[in-house]
Specification:
Length: 192
């Protein structure tokens, strides 16, 4: 079982990063291999013009780091999407990564590789109202549905703006660890 965490924040050891670490620890405790990618460390250009026929698209910007990240993404059984909420959405780094799926997700060489992956969504944000999390969770549920993946769950943490604030929220960290364990069990059952 290969688990990949995609970090949308440019802030290493920030709140979404630390939350993702707990999910990864939970997954690793179940025997999974884990990896983490900081999207900000890579050159991912915004999507370029693509043709209308989505089955025959080529990525006009495949000369950046995206193809190597996509390869790692497609080799993983479970994806952890971790991002702070920036202006009612995922970070720009994560948005660029997601938008680039448009050149691949229906292409016959790639389409089946998206199928059946597990997905967990993590988000942290400064506002104190939980409803703010729907700016992340609802679009991500639709994205995962289009990719024909399995939305396993999410953890969204309000009032978590200052770096390290998540460490005060022990219940959320414990929930993240448990979600990592449960996600591996879920995916193992799906693969039988």
């Amino acid at each position: 079982m290969q688990v990949l965490a995609l970090l949308g924040s440019p802030r290493k050891k920030g709140n979404s990063d630390l939350l993702a670490d707990e999910v990864l620890k939970g997954a690793k405790s179940m025997g999974a291999s884990v990896d983490k990618i900081y999207l900000d460390d890579f050159h991912i250009r915004p999507i370029g013009e693509v043709i209308d026929d989505s089955r025959n698209r080529e990525d006009p910007r495949a000369d950046d780091d995206y193809p190597q990240l996509l390869k790692k993404f497609l080799e993983s059984d479970l994806i952890i999407w971790a991002t702070p909420i920036y202006w009612c959405g995922v970070s720009a780094q994560m948005k660029c990564f997601i938008d680039r799926f448009s050149s691949y997700f229906r292409n016959p060489h790639y389409a089946d590789k998206f199928y059946g992956q597990g997905h967990i969504v993590l988000c942290t944000f400064g506002r104190d109202d939980y409803e703010h999390s729907s700016f992340i969770t609802e679009p991500m549920k639709l994205t995962i549905q289009v990719l024909r993946g399995n939305y396993i769950g999410d953890i969204c943490v309000p009032d978590c703006y200052q770096k390290g604030k998540i460490l005060e929220k022990k219940d959320k960290l414990e929930k993240a660890f448990i979600l990592g364990r449960k996600a591996v069990m879920f995916m193992n059952d799906k693969q039988k």
